[in-house]
Amino acid sequence: MIACVDCKIPYPPDSIPYICPHCGGIYDFTAPPPFDPERIEPDLPGYWRYRLSPSSPVRG
User: Fold this and answer.
1) How far apart are CA 47 and CA 12, in angstroms?
2) Distance CA 34, CA 21 (A)
3) What is the pTM of this model?
4) 23-28 average pLDDT score
5) What pLDDT score was predicted for residue 11?
6) Are 11 and 20 in contact (CB under 8 A)?
7) Would you say 21 and 15 are in contact if contact means Cβ atoms under 8 Å apart?
8) How far apart are CA 31 and CA 21, in angstroms?
C-alpha cells in the first residue's frame, strides 16, 4: 500500500498527485511490495529477468 508519510492517508486510486493534498507530505510504500521468486524469468539478461516484479518500472 502507498500512503502519505506524514498523515498516513492512502494514495488516491482515481488521481495521480505528486504530494498529499491533505498535508503536503510525500507518498511512500507502507511496506515493501510483495516479491514472488516464481515470476523471475531466468532466461532474460540482467534487470529484464525481474520485469514482472511489482516494483519494476517495466511491465510485461
Assistant:
1) 30
2) 27
3) 0.57
4) 95
5) 92
6) no
7) no
8) 22
Say how many C-beta atoms besides its own lie within 10 A of residue 39's C-beta: 14
What is the reported pLDDT for 58? 47
**Could you write out the three-class secondary structure of the chain?**
CEEECCCCCECCCCCCCCCCCCCCCCEEECCCCCCCHHHCCCCCCHHHHHCCCCCCCCCC
The per-residue pLDDT for 55 is 57
CA–CA gap between residue 5 and residue 51 (Å, rounded): 27
Counting every residue, how long is the chain? 60
Whole-number Å distance between alpha carbons of 21 and 55: 24
Q: Could you report the per-residue pLDDT of 26-51, keeping only the tens digit for each?
A: 999 888 877 788 888 999 999 888 88
